Amino acid sequence: MGKKKRVKASPAGPNGRKRDNVGGDVAKIPVLKGCLEQSVEERFLLDRELGRGEFGITYLCTDRESRELLACKSISKRKLKTAIDIEDVRREVAIMKHLPKNNNIVSLKATCEDDNAVHLLMELCEGGELFDRIVARGHYTERAAAAVTRTIVEVVQLCHKHGVIHRDLKPENFLFANKKENSPLKAIDFGLSVFFKPGDRFSEIVGSPYYMAPEVLKRNYGPEIDVWSAGVILYILLCGVPPFWAESEQGVAQAILRGFVDFKREPWPKISETAKSLVRQMLEPDPKRRLTAQQVIEHPWLQNAKKAPNVPLGDVVKTRLKQFSMTNKFKKRALRVIADHLSVEETKGIKDMFKMMDTDNSGSISYDKLKAGLHKLGSQMDESEVQILMDAADADGNGMLDYREFVAASLHMQSIDNDDYLRKAFLFFDKDGSGYIEIEEFREALADDFGPNDIDVVNSIFNEVDADKDGRISYEEFASMMKTGTDWRKASRHYSRGRFNNLSIKLVRDGSLQMDNNERR
Q1: Can you give the pTM of this predicted structure?
Q2: DSSP 3-state of 116
Q3: Cα–Cα distance for residue pair 498/205, rounded to 1 Å
Q4: Cα 162 to the center of its chain, rounded Å
Q5: What is the Cα–Cα distance from 497 to 296, expressed in whole angstroms?
Q6: Torsion angle of the four alpha carbons 471, 473, 474, 475, in this order, in degrees rounded to the nearest 10
Q7: Could you tell me if 7 and 390 are in contact, meaning their C-beta atoms sit under 8 angstroms apart?
Q8: For 249-305, how does the pLDDT look when each residue is reduced to its tens digit (9 = 90+)?
Q9: How many helices (H) and strands (E) does the chain have?
Q10: Please, what are the domains in the chain?
Q11: Which residues are catalytic?
């Protein structure tokens, strides 16, 4: 028997995270090195908002010197509450600078920093999201799916060759550069990516539920997870629905661990055997037997991409893709509302909780103190669950939680399941205060994302959410939609990390997941 490799806990901490001393006024903490000396307003002319996420807003902007149109991602320092947040931003920038210039990866042009925000100036992508372009084309075939898949896997191959695991491959993270038919497709988001060396293993559960590899849930993984995620995207490209789906996040995770892939539903009987063989080999549950990115590119279906069947896959696939894309967009609108409320959720009460658990005033909390403190607060977590929580929060791997680690853990544990945030999001869409989201309010929420020909798709999504078919969406139906096998909880990256660790606990409890000591480190 070969000696089993331990999950990574290097000087940079588990999962490659270094710790930073975060204290005092966040505005005074320099987040990045090598920024432009000019302020963002001096060098760039900021224009309309292009989008927003948990940490900041992306604007259209113009370089005053070159007149080049760019995208400016402004990350509010007020939102960078923990050392992990700051390290995430530093690592995202470091990875974008480290990866070589490539036609399929968005390029970072410059960075600026002031007391209020960090600004990433990036290449502008105006061609829209991957699924939107596919649906708009009208004629969608295996050949088109093969061309997209090849691009995605070439990005994965490039990342792996340069020591980077992407960790969050999904259709939303690919945009077309422009509206032209031959526009390049570009990977745009490296916020969860991490550097790795051969043999490194990681334990942090990150990503988006539909696209997570089984070994991520087992908290012991390497670069092979990116090929799995690309395989999930390929499956969706070919049939319009995810391979692993359920009514809850836990159900999705259990489906992933079972690993059954359905090739019987339409349009799979019409799809070529070579395409199906590639999907099977990318969704191989054993990462040691899964194809590498290089092997995927060498697969006959991609080698002969231009010879792949050019027969339309049918309207059913296009309609599914459109629904999948638009439902996600509605959820993202709700996420923005939730994220706005989370942003004011500061660390009140956390300091008192820390003091209560830190019984000897040592400034750190051991496993025993954490267990006793949680018990005092009425938690029903058993010892293995407390240990998993401890492992997740202990950023430097020293077996103790200092105050900053405890703050991060507490933010993880702030429960959106109490429905307060969902209720606020629901009220945002219920414009007339009737207690229901009417069809017109629903259409208004999606007005930016659909055209005159999409009315049937919008009605179809509405009818799907409207479980009792009374022609309106109640709060209960809205909450059920938001919790159905989605990555809606990424409204808070803190919360999603804690939530996924919680999910891992549940899977251990229900017997879906067995982890040995090496996998739990």
Answers
A1: 0.66
A2: coil
A3: 9
A4: 22
A5: 30
A6: 180
A7: no
A8: 778 888 999 999 999 988 898 899 999 999 999 999 999 999 999 999 999 999 987
A9: 21, 13
A10: 9-123 (3.30.200.20), 130-313 (1.10.510.10), 323-344+417-489 (1.10.238.10), 350-414+492-520 (1.10.238.10)
A11: 168
